[in-house]
Amino acid sequence: MNGYFQLITMPTATGIKIFPPTLEGESLNYDDVKEYLEERSISYRPAVLNEAVTEATGEIVVLNDNSTFPERESYRLTISRDRMQASAFFYAPSEGAENMTPKEFLEDLAYRNITYGIDTEAISEFFKSREYCKEIVIARGTKTREGCNARIDYQFKADLHAKPAMHEDGSVDYFNLNIINHVKKGAELAILTPEDPGDPGQNIYGEILNPHPVKTLKIAAGKNTYLSADGLVLFSDADGHVTLKDGKVTVSNVIQFENIGVSTGNINYDGSVEVKGTVASGFSIKAGANIVVKGVVEGANLNAGNDIILERGINGMGKGEIKAGGNIVTKFIENAKATAKGSITSESILHSNVAAGTEITVSGKKGFIAGGRVTATDKIVAKDLGSDMGATTIIEVGADPNLKIRLRELQKAVGESTKKLENIKPTVESITKRLRSGKALSPELTRQAQQLITMNKVLSSQIEKNSKEMAELQQKLADSKDAYVVVEGTAYPGITIHIADQQMTLKTESTYCRFELRDGVVKTGPI
Question: Biggest alpha carbon distance in the chain?
Fold first, then answer.
């Protein structure tokens, strides 16, 4: 048993008894006695009290020369900061004073709105043994169990990248790119692990503590696929190749042509298209997956949902265009426009407008970029940039400078919406308080409440949408600072290098160099 104290009331004085601990109990804390006396306005001499607590003889020690009323058995209640636990610290009654009853204690907890997780066994044990000056946990809340998001595990490589191999003689192998996920009918394509919503908790005041929301997912079944009865497994319904686009899994076959021209007309196909010969000027191919052309693409338009592989290249004649949702691998790009969400790999780029969502690599025997505008988000690597003929060549890497303008607009919009929310908050709380008290609202207040609720939803939605876009732009801007250009041969005078929102025009020839953004300025240095 812990050490404890008992107040002694006498006709002309007030005293105290300090009892020592027994067995493995803890000694009485001076501050606990001090707090008890000061809360009841009982005067004492600190030195005398400290000596009494230290010696703990169990004898009466006079605190003052004034008589005081007897004190009933009482307790100090402590609530944890998270409102998940309550503990009681009981004080002995004055000599001859009344004890508290279990019923009285429970009624007092109810008055304090402590209604959940009450430990009746611990309370009953105290009233049996009455161990004073000891913290006793008398109520515990139930912790919230957080859940987890749903997860889809794809049973194929969902992010294939076309990476041609380089031969020892400097030529590039455009044949063995391994860009197709071949599947057989009945093969598992994706497995869904459903979300776990978690379990709500409850604090000692009976308030429900909900877990954080979790993300739900469903497998999106595309062409030539089917779901199991429980919706957890996706299977292939045909032989072919599988792709993932915009969250939907599709199995496609490959359609082949000798040439694309007057005998075929324009091609629009959900799967992949292979052309053994050439694509004539003025014709187009649109494929949901990949486009592979073994011959030359003339002034034609190619649009692929995934990758474009041109084993020879494209001579756009000023009107040809290739556009890929994935990567582009080609022998050359000349007088054409080429755009890829992923990377672009070529042996040469001449007088063309080329843009890649990640990187551009121009290597091999030629490895030059001359004339036109070539843009990539992450990096551009080439053997030679520009030419000694002075062709206007613009090289750009990093995020678009317009992103900063848009970011400032979003920051301003979020700030204004947040301020409006703060302005309507007091009114909403006032109306909510009236409703909880059972008071009826006037027609005018009812209309006002409806307007405020609608405004709150609209503003919250705007803030969430704008904040998400802000985060994406901030990441793009952060990534753009690390963008760079590498020249493995010669960079000729007259070329212009843009990195993020900075630029420089090369005035002298540079070799084996790297252009990057340092201290807010485009600078060049060795590779």
Answer: 122
